[in-house]
Amino acid sequence: MNIKGFKFSAVEAAIKKPGRRDLALIFSELPAVAAAVFTTNQVKAAPVLLSMERVKNGQLQAMVVNSGNANACTGIQGMADARETSRLVAEGLGIPEETVFVASTGVIGQPLPMERVRKGIPPLIEGLAAGTLEQLAQAIMTTDTFAKMESRSGVAGGTGYTIAGVAKGAGMIMPNMATMLAFIITDAAVEPAFLAKAFRDAVEASFNVISVDGDTSTNDTALLMANGAAANPLIREGSAAASSFAGLLSEVLLALAKQIVKDGEGATKFVKIVVRGASSNGDAKRAAMAIANSQLVKTAFFGQDANWGRILAAVGYSGAQIDPDRTALWFDEVQMAKNGMFAGGNAEAEGSAVLKQPEFTVTVDLQLGEGQAAVYTSDLSYDYVKINADYRT
Hints:
Elements: E1 6-11, E2 23-38, H1 46-54, E3 59-69, H2 75-93, E4 100-107, H3 114-126, H4 133-139, E5 148-156, E6 159-168, E7 181-186, H5 192-204, E8 210-211, E9 221-226, H6 240-262, E10 270-278, H7 281-293, H8 295-303, H9 308-317, E11 328-331, E12 334-338, E13 341-342, H10 347-355, E14 359-365, E15 371-378, H11 382-389
């Protein structure tokens, strides 16, 4: 991957426990245009509050992130620690402190071990020459089982550019957004207002259509930095280059979002939920998310039980307009329900066979209009309980 003007670093600071990199840095050699989307949870971590304040300036040059400690519900001291972290990074890089973005992920309610963070920052900055994006992706993991990365290349005005991203997330995944971090970088030169709109749209169609367990965290952060180092003609809204850029950006975010669902804590199934024929797109998404978040549906997926009735029940309480006598349902190509009733024949056996696959699609047709939506979810297994019961130990 060739992305110009960005450097990366990751070190072990033993923030939660030793043995892995857990403090990371992205540095843009040029001031970058920035856009961000944050958790809608009213309980927000200190780094989220600080970064929400700083991204308003629209320009950033560095992002420092730690795993193992969320720095959430830590009061005045938590905000002071977030500010000190950004100040130390800014001083080490020789850039204005207000251009440093801060993010954290991990255990809620415990003070950030600042003595370890302070010791970790000098080697973090020194390591920028040799660090890789993959090391950064590994450093932000918590209960993740694999590093999540994606990239795409494009052309604007005859000049090539790259969009690359990393993300973390496996549990507490639910719009809006999830206990996830996502950092997207591009060397394209992009007009700021268009960059912000394209990013919001891409987030809405990716990180906001996934669910692992229906929980929304205190630390969710998605950041996009565009530093223009590719020296392409400025990408402006309404141009062919803008349409291409937005498409590639959406591809990167959706690919990362799908990786998060596939890595859902204890997950054994990756399920696409499609609702079509709704009276509106909003109704379709409401119905799809109700299915994706239903614990009864998710446990049926885990048990490979073709319990289509649980799915129709979820649609029924979703708040979407429905006519039960017109609703149809499929597992992949196997029709399970027609006109709100069992489709009959070999549907039970064939539907159970579909659910034995690691990936499949559930389609619901409400037959009321043109509205449609697709969301992505996982099953709910024994291991999910084990992982979350032991998370702090």
